[in-house]
Amino acid sequence: MDWLDLAKTAFEGSTTYFDANLRKQQEDNFAHFQGRHTADSKYHLDSWKYRSKSFVPKTRSIVRKGEATVAAAFFSNVDVVTADAQDQSNTLQVANAALMKELLNYRLQKSIPWFATLIGAFQEAEVCGVVCSYQDWMHRTETETVLQVGSDGFGNLVQYEAQQEIVVEDRPYIDLVPLENVRFDPGADWRDPVGTSPYFIHMVPMYVGGVKERMKRVDPKTGQPVWTPLEDGEIQAAMVEYDSVRNARENQRTDSKAEDNAYSDFDIVWCHRNFIKVEGKEYFYWTLGTQHLLSEPVPIKEAYWTGERPYVIGTVALEAHKAVPASLVELGSAVQKELNDIRNSRMDNVKLVLNKRWLVRRNKNVDIASLNRNVPGSVTLADDIADIQEVNWPDVTASAYQEQDRLNVDFDELLGNFSGSSVMTNRKLNETVGGMSMLNGSASVMTEYAIRTFVETWVEPVLRQLVKLEAKYESDEIVLGVAGQKAQLQRYGVDRITDDLLNQDVTIYVNVGMGATDPNSKLQKFAMAAQTVAGIAQALPGANMEEVRKEVFGLAGYRDGSRFFPEAQEGPSPELMQAQQMIQQLQQALQQAMDQRQMEAAKLQLEAQKAQEKAALDAAKLQQDEQKAVLSAQIDQQAKASTIEAQRQAEAEKAQASIQIAAMEAEIQAQTELQKAALQAAAQIEIAKINADAKEDMGESEAEDDGPKSSDLMQAIFETQANLLKAISAPKRVVRGSDGRMTGVESA
């Protein structure tokens, strides 16, 4: 499919319709708004070169008054918008409605120049018939070099440069689009031309440098340039030199979007946003004019996540079955021209009365230049006074002024203006305060109707698109924190903001209703409505107060008055229900307390007596405890002294016993050693004797076999010696008397 040819065909067809049916009227509208005669006016002819050509600024006056009225209606409240949950029983939707209200109010007051945007949109609608705007989210980052600290791999800290993405802009924005830069099918539904047109083209003026930058930028998804790279000659061919409506809008100044002689990055080239439906599917892509394709067509969901065109077209005057209705300026253009004619004719008459015309005979010697100058006190030379004749003009009649007044009234009635000329014309009405109120009231109704139409067709659709953008792209923690705090999400059981919360369905409407153009009247209507509701609530307790509030505040000019009664708008909050239950419980507890008051008083008296008795017992016990403590201290002191003396005496006895035991053990050891030595000596003597006797009797002994042998004798001696040693070395035990003192030692 040739997408470039498709876009070119759509653009050329819609441009042909615009040139043939809208361009001339748009130029005339801007001329009247700026106080200029239209291009085809007779005042531009040579025959009117020296005639009065003044322009009565009625058109500019009515537009400026409308802007002032819009400013008073929209910005008399601190909160710009109000949000309601579609399902009041859904806690998340109610919480999101409160959060989204605060988010929109913050963004419209801090991020978006809402005042200038709103007044400019209303002015555009009054002058052109419609206003078109583009809503999107602006997210722009820049790469900067920063110093970071890290490890070099050996445990050392080093500084190094790194590239970091810094968010420069992250906010929603609303861009008003001039009507001459928009193309859509003229057969689209007049109630929704943006959504029902098979194509929608937005001509975007961009600097050549910005176009080249996009051609160099690489798409991270595809790795290819965002836009198709083109040569300078191809870019320059897409420049538009002149647009008559833009020139009329800029009041015949040098065209700010025209091409200069020298081609540079600061020249403006026209790029087209193309939204085209093909076989039931919608695609989006960029083109450079109608000459070159800049981007490949993609489904609209890939470019705009909502799947809808991010444009809104609104108006202040509805005309059925006309996508571009007549503007207020166009409606009053015929009367405006008549006003100009009446004034200029009257001015010419006045000038002729003050500066008369002269008839001069042809080919006579008359100073015609002096007559033309007509300087007071000057001299005009002539050969014959009869050659000069004065032409007298009657003064301006009252009918000229009366016609002017009637035309002013017609203009004011048509466009809903309330001016001094209307008051002066209706003499009977202006003589009473009631008559003045009637004149002002009829004019206010027309203005309020225009504002209501503007709100329904442009303001609220734009805010609904902003809600979707906020739900999708809002990531500023500061903005979310401020909005969440103001919304008091805790009362809905929400402790943090999530995507699920932001994606809940809400209904957005603007705090502007009928009767909002006059602050004093608005305050009176509000007070009267509030008093009426309060009176009905007291007089009819069983009435459906929600419906009563809607009816009363609706008659006062509000939508339904629900924003003044949060419980009716959001339903009883959990905190409110809990508080009501607590109040009921407290009332029951109070009733029980009143019934048992006497019992409680007696109980308190009894407790007081018990407390006194307890205090007396505690005092006696304390005194007894002090006496016990003193006695116990004395006993402990005596016991401690006795214990120390007993320990000292026991240690002395123990030392004495140890000395005695040591002495006895030493004495026993000495005796044992003496006995051992004596036995050894006796044994040696006996052995020597035995050996001597044995030598003498060796011969006799051989004959006598029955006598005792020497070996047997020695064995007996050795056994006696061993038994003695065993008895000596056996363990000893100390023997004590009845008094515990040691009396002797015995074998164990």
Structure description:
Helices cover 55% and strands 15% of the residues. The protein starts with a helix and ends with a strand. With 748 residues, it is α+β, with helices and mostly antiparallel strands. Strands 4, 5, 6, 7, 8 and 9 form a 6-stranded antiparallel sheet that branches. A 3-stranded antiparallel sheet has the order 3-2-10. The radius of gyration is 59 Å and the shape is elongated. α20 (519-539) runs antiparallel to α21. The longest helix is centred in the C-terminal third of the chain and has 100 residues, at 597-696. It contains 26 helices and 15 strands. Among the domains are: 1-33 and 178-314, no CATH class; 518-564, no CATH class; 597-698 and 710-747.
Structural class estimated from helices and strands: alpha+beta
Largest sheet, in brief, is: 6 strands, antiparallel
Task: Quote the average pLDDT.
Answer: 80
Q: What is the 3D shape?
A: elongated
**What is the chains' assembly state?**
single chain
Count up the helices.
26
Question: What's the total number of strands?
Answer: 15
Helix content: 55-70%
> N-to-C terminal Cα separation, in Å?
128 Å
Topology, element by element:
Blueprint: H1 3-21, H2 23-33, H3 58-74, E1 81-85, H4 91-111, H5 114-128, E2 131-151, E3 157-177, E4 182-184, H6 193-196, E5 199-207, H7 208-216, H8 232-236, H9 244-249, E6 268-278, E7 281-288, E8 292-293, E9 298-299, H10 300-303, E10 311-314, H11 328-331, H12 333-354, E11 357-360, H13 368-373, E12 388-391, H14 398-415, H15 420-425, H16 427-430, H17 433-473, H18 477-487, H19 499-502, E13 506-510, H20 519-539, H21 545-555, H22 566-570, H23 574-595, H24 597-696, H25 698-703, H26 710-729, E14 732-736, E15 742-747
Antiparallel strand pairs: 1-13, 2-3, 2-10, 4-5, 5-6, 6-7, 7-8, 7-9, 11-12, 14-15
Helix pairs in contact: 3-5, 4-18, 12-14, 20-21, 24-26
